[in-house]
Amino acid sequence: MSNGPDRDSSNPLPSVPRGPMKLMDDCWMVGHRNPESMLQCNTYVRSFRQFGARRNVCIDPGSQFDYGVVESNISQLIGGMSEIHAMTINHQDPDVAGNAPAVCEASPEVELITTEETWRLLQHALIRPGKLRLSQGAAPATARQPFQFVPTPFCHFRGAMALYDPEQRVLYTGDLFGGLNRLGDVHLLANEDDWNGIAQFHQIYMPSRDVLRFAVKAILKLRPRVEFIAPQHGHVITGDLIDLFLERMHELPVGYDLFESQWDHENLAGYQDAIQRMIDYAENERGDVNVTCRLSEDDASDGLHGQLSFRQGKVRLEREGYTALAKVFARLAEGETDEFVTELRRVTASACDEQGLPIPPAASGFAADAVQEGG
Ligand SMILES: [Fe+2]
Ligand SMILES: [Fe+2]
């Protein structure tokens, strides 16, 4: 991902939160808010009162990139990593579990709560918890184990598991409902505008709409009803946005859905329009000749020449709009200024958004090299 100063310098940035971010009593987000990144990693600490004592649980300890901030925030709250009594891990990705070995080292008695599928892979990172609790599918909360286990298979790992805290009505969902943020804008509580970043993240990392629907149905069945969705990236969702984003998630084509030819065919006209708006912007800024040269080059390895045709000075999209749009974006953006690329991205994203089209990764700011960083 480009972590450079990819933003409009005339717009003042929202302030960057520092320190632990309180969601409610005994519940904090302690991850790093990084204004230079489009992917914030959320780590949570939930402190339970159990049998006259405190039990501090760390939910998804996070990326090694962020260890210093996570450690400092936890120390501020509870006196140190050694006071973590349990740790949960949604799945084995390094942005979720990278700090797990350090937690085990600081707190040797720590109990690790995860799924068998996740643990089978996670143990290869030399994570050695004092105790291990492997979930066996869905399970209710108990006095000793106050999270309800909510399996969310294939969102995005086969063994991914959300955790529901029925006392505070918070559902910790891992990558599910995670989202990208606009550079510099790292607020915690979601607003409706944050849906685009959530949709883009899911279109890249979730395998299919069917698995999202399975998870949405499981979430809707939870009682008491969920009041906070706390994902491992981006924004915490609450209020009316819970129902709205659940509805949208139920309908969102992602992953493999976007490769299906029928779906692509239905949206060809929409992507044609989006590509034309990108071209209009680029021609306005750089002239017709520059744009024609960039798009008509037919010996490039990206295969775009098989998706576009040129007739009477007009570019026509022939097939596979989703991938073609990403390639057009890459060709128009290559070697360009940050200002040009930012505006091209805005034009692209709003053209897709207005027509309800999935926004390809390039237009979200997730250039090819960036995709390797997230998830
Ligand atoms: Fe992940
Ligand atoms: Fe993640």
Can you walk through the features of this model?
There is one protein chain. α6 runs antiparallel to α7 (241-251). The chain has a seven-stranded mixed sheet. It has a five-stranded mixed sheet with strand order 8-9-10-11-12, with helices on one face. The model is unreliable at 1-10 and 366-375 (pLDDT under 50). β6, α4 (116-122) and β7 form a beta-alpha-beta unit. The chain folds into two domains: 21-258, Ribonuclease Z/Hydroxyacylglutathione hydrolase-like (Metallo-beta-lactamase, Chain A), CATH 3.60.15.10; 260-371. By secondary structure, it is α/β, with parallel strands linked by helices. It is elongated. It has helices spanning 67-78, 94-97, 100-106, 116-122, 195-205, 209-220, 241-251, 261-266, 268-286, 288-296, 321-333, 338-354, 368-371, and strands at residues 21-24, 27-29, 44-50, 53-59, 86-88, 111-115, 131-135, 148-151, 161-165, 170-174, 228-231, 237-238, 308-311, 314-317. The two termini are 12 Å apart. Bound molecules: fe (ii) ion (2 copies). One fe (ii) ion is lined by residues 93, 95-96, 175, 178, 232-233, 375.
